[in-house]
Design goal:
By secondary structure, the chain is mainly β. The protein has helices at 23-26, 78-87, 135-144, and strands spanning 11-12, 16-22, 29-35, 41-49, 55-64, 71-73, 100-110, 145-155, 163-168, 178-180, 187-191, 197-201, 206-209, 215-220, 226-232, 237-246. The longest helix has 10 residues, at 78-87. It starts with 10 loop residues before the first strand and ends with a strand. Residues 1-7 and 112-133 have low confidence and may be disordered.
Length: 247
Amino acid sequence: MLTAALVFALQVSAPALISTLDAGKLKGEPTQLAWSADGTQVFLQTNERDRSGMVKTPRYFVMSAADGKPRAVDAAPVWATEYWAWKSNQYAPGSNTFGIDIKQDERTISSTSSAMGGALAKGAVATDPTAGTTADEVMNHAAQSQQVRVFSLTLKEGVKGEVVGEFVGQQFLPGYTFGWSPGGLGMIAYTNSSGRLAIAGKDGQKQQVDSTKNVLLPAWSPDGSRIAFLQRAGKNAYELYVVAVKQ
């Protein structure tokens, strides 16, 4: 189903599940997804995160694009490094205007361990215990709040201002929430604010793939005919999907 004021004449197939990846065997969170130049292989990098949200301990895997079975390798192949360089750039290949604005600021968030109900949960501060939030609870809540760094990514051109990524209290990873189409196509695939796979063009058109959710690492094949992406599938698994794209 397509959603937007302007809709592509782009045909996107239903997502095809290629494989389910065991997070335990990957030993980390997926942080890179790249295609080989001939479109037959997919590279996956995983990383663990430290307590401050910074990635560490990279591990590398190569998969067949047909079955998605990961095979551990010692380092990222040259083709994966070359692909990632243009896929995750701030600007689309061959353009100096169709790009991404990156804004950094601070935001106050509350620890999930101190989630509170009553009036405070609705944005009000009450000192009357019958209102559901006491003064002591308010003080405790404030003490457990913290300032975190937030990186917000928005398009400069096309669907100007469209959010194509946000990192709250974690390291900003270029390409984690978006991927440019190959040179000349003028499109970007990204995780939208609803967590779905979306596509936008430099001409202002966009659409989303409604059957997707919890999307990360969207990646166009080098010939522009497919988009691979991962979906979180519970705590211990990720699913690798591919959609076919036709103009």
